[in-house]
Amino acid sequence: MVPLRALALRAGVRIHRQLGSPRVSQPRRFVWEGDANRLRALYVRTALGVSVRPPPDLHSSDAKHTVRVRLVRSALRHVVETCPQGLRLCVRMDSDGADGSGTCTSVGGPSDKSGVHINWPGKFDVDIATTGPGSVDVEEVDSHDIRVQTQEGQIHLVHVKGAEILLRSSSGSIRGEKAIIGSSTIQTDHQGDVEVDKLQGERLQVASGSGRVSIRSLYCGTANLSARAGDIRLGSIHGSVSIRSEGGNVSIGSVDGDVQVLCAAGNIAVHLSRPTSVNLTSSEGDVTIGFPESLGLDVRLSMSHLDLGVDVSLQDQSITSKDGKQHVTGRVNGGGVGLWAKAGGILRLHKQSWFQSLSTQH
């Protein structure tokens, strides 16, 4: 194996500190520092947890930013190297075991926890993948490409922005604090949840296996959201949004734009604030629709039973029955926005202020 110091010099970085002896089993700490101006991307492949945070002097006007990598782990070989042309900092770590497996504790706390802790200027691309239980924490990254993938580990982001964002976990959860901004693909395959404070991008795709999807506010050109078994809970949505749920419920606190919801078995609860087109279908469940007093609707409804609010009247009403279902068309407040809704059970249509709709939200 090439000596660590030779690899560090070749990468344009220096070993800042080494604590502990590689001949004993106590935790070893390695620290590298390098000039951020010589790097363009961060590439990490490891079985440990990864923490990426901005340098302490990131917002200082006269600061000379450096990349600082702290590796803390017992009985591991650590290699820091540059990819071709010196444009990418690569961090690769393998365990001493022949199978290359490793264990880690959660990352995100003090720097003496096991894992890879990186102070990384937010303007450069990030590509991180972990195996096993390795989790990933990323804060304040603003770049073109952001890619984070885990197997069992969690993904935790705080205010990230990119032209293209990929977040994927086989069985861990994905949490986004403050905002995730950029065309994004977010996916959990099994029991992991997706929870985001604010999700904004021209193209958004969110998919969950048996976990739930929870987004407080969503701004998009187009968005596709799906869950095989978990619930989908949205606060306010803005744009053209398509939602599909195979087994869970769907709730939306406020709709501004186009929305299409297809539920196989769950219930749908939606408040319409400034919709342009609404299409709601629950094959087996109930559908509950609230709307402001001033909103005009052209409705086409199909359900087992219709529950109209006491203050809702249908003009030009037409009612037919077929195959055990009621089919109703008409206008509310003189007509306006097209509302198509089908319910396997009860369909409720009632007037509701935005303040009253907050009970639908988180």
How would you explain this protein's 3D organization?
- The protein has helices at 4-10, 354-357; strands at 13-19, 28-35, 41-46, 50-53, 66-73, 76-82, 88-95, 115-119, 125-130, 136-139, 142-150, 155-169, 174-188, 194-208, 213-227, 232-245, 250-263, 268-282, 287-291, 297-303, 305-308, 315-322, 325-332, 337-343, 346-351.
- With 362 residues, it is mostly beta strands.
- The chain folds into two domains: 1-126, no CATH class; 173-362, no CATH class.
- The chain has a 25-stranded mixed sheet that branches.
- It starts with a helix and ends in a 5-residue tail after the last helix.
- The relative contact order is 0.08.
Briefly say what this structure is:
With 362 residues, the protein is mainly β.
List keywords for this structure.
mainly beta, 25-stranded mixed sheet, 2 helices, 61% strand
Mean pLDDT: 80
Q: Using DSSP, what is the number of strands?
A: 25
**Main sheet record:** 25 strands, mixed
Count of DSSP H/I helices: 2
Instruction: Compute the separation of the termini in Å.
Output: 54 Å
Helix content: under 10%
Backbone CA Rg = 26 Å
